[in-house]
Each structure stands twice: as C-alpha cells, then as structure tokens.
Amino acid sequence: MKMFSRFLTSCLLVASVVVHAADDQAAAQLRKQLDAMNTLQGDFVQTTYDKKGAEQETSSGNFMLMRPGKFYWKTLEPMQQLLVSNNKTIWLYDPDLETVNERAFTDDLRETPALLLSSDIEQLRKSFTVTRDEKDTSAEKYTLTPKVTDGMFQHLTLVFKANQLTEFAIQDSLGQLTRCVLTNVQRNKTLPEEKFFFQPPEGVEILKD
Predict the structure, then answer these.
(1) What is the pairing mode between strands 55-66 and 39-49?
(2) How far is Cα 198 from Cα 52, in angstroms, rounded to an integer?
(3) Average pLDDT over residues 10-31
(4) I need a labelling partner for 11 at 20 to 30 A (CA). Which of 57, 145, 166, 205 fits?
(5) 168-193 tens-digit pLDDT
(6) What phi and psi, each to the nearest 5 degrees, are found at residue 96?
(7) What is the Cα–Cα distance from 156 to 9, expressed in whole angstroms?
C-alpha cells in the first residue's frame, strides 16, 4: 500500500503529457515530441531524494505504456511489485504480501503525477505552463508547472535525447524529488493488450478502494 500511495503522489509512469499554447514556442516543441509517442517500453531506475537532496531509496524494473491511461510498471529490485492500468482500473500486486490493491481509474487519479505521463493529451492541454532549458544543448529539457497550485506536486520535468524520452522527475509539494532514468527505450512498438489487464492469482487477498 505504501508503494501504491507513493506511485500516485510522486510518479512512476512515462508516456505523454503536453501543454497547449499556440504562442508558446517551448510548449509547441514539447507537444511535437509527445504527440509522436503513442507507446513506450523499456527499463527504469527510480531514485527518491528528500528535500535536502539526500538519497532515500532506489528501485528498478521494466515498463510498458500505451496512451491513454494504460501502463504496466514492474518493479524487480529491491522488492517485486506490479502496477497495471487499463484506463478503467488500477491494480497493485505485491507478491510478498499476497495482496492486490484495486481501484477505479477515476477523474481525481487523472490529476496525480503518477498518471499524468500516461493520460490523454487532450485532458492535459490546459493544466500546465511549460518552459525549456535553452542552456542545455545536449538534451531537450522541459519543466511543467501546474496552473493549480494546491496540487500534489510542484514541478514535472521531462528530458529528451535524440527525440527519445530518457528521464523524468517530479518534485512534490513537500520538496521530495523522484527521478526516473529510462534505458533500452523503444517507442511506438506494438504492445500486447493483455499486459494492461491484471488477473489476480488464485488465493491472494483483493483490497478495493
């Protein structure tokens, strides 16, 4: 349950978010990058830092994502966990605890950092302002700030290299930073639909919110 809450409030998934602003060059550049990304898969290393910059924990695994709202995020180390969404239901499976936490993919969850990266672009057009770090010539780095300031996070940063999303990070409202580095990334490959629907193993406890 702790992992589930952390995911919803600090972001584990990757796919596409965009800000619409016809007169904003940075937003237009970001939109071009993300509009071209319908599916994404690869490996991740996720590290969480406290507000002073001290490393708190690191996890790694692999992921698949299909826009809108479908994702498969499998943590392998240090403990196995699986988070799955089919855009209607979200499942968190913990093999060690033999539990599955299940809840509906509702409108309030669409606003969490965890789901911004896999949500429908059309739903996110008016939610953010966007800036680009023009000083960094080795990558395209965009920072998105929610227009509603009482949300769960302060900033979302997306980093592209050679037109590929390689990193994203979220700073939450308490100053904690969660950074996800992506490797072996493949974009717009055909993904198996069954990966985005979870069938609980026999004998596990199902907890519904």
Answers:
(1) antiparallel
(2) 38
(3) 51
(4) 205
(5) 888 887 888 889 999 999 999 999 99
(6) -65, -40
(7) 12
- pTM exceeds cut of 0.70: yes
Helices (H), 61-172: 107-110, 113-116, 121-124
Give me 103's structure tokens: 């809840």
| 178 within domain boundaries | yes
> Residue 181: which CATH number?
2.50.20.10
- The whole-number pLDDT of residue 14 equals 37
For 142-149, the CB contacts below 8 A with 24+ separation are: 142/26, 142/29, 142/30, 144/17, 144/19
d(CA 69, CA 47): 23
Distance CA 209, CA 205 (A): 13
Residue 206 counted as domain residue = no
Amino acid occupying residue 1: M
pLDDT at 99: 93
| Residue 49 lies in domain | 2-192
Which token pair is 39? 């599916």
Number of domains forming the structure of the chain:
1
3-state secondary structure (DSSP) of residue 198: coil
d(CA 123, CA 39): 18
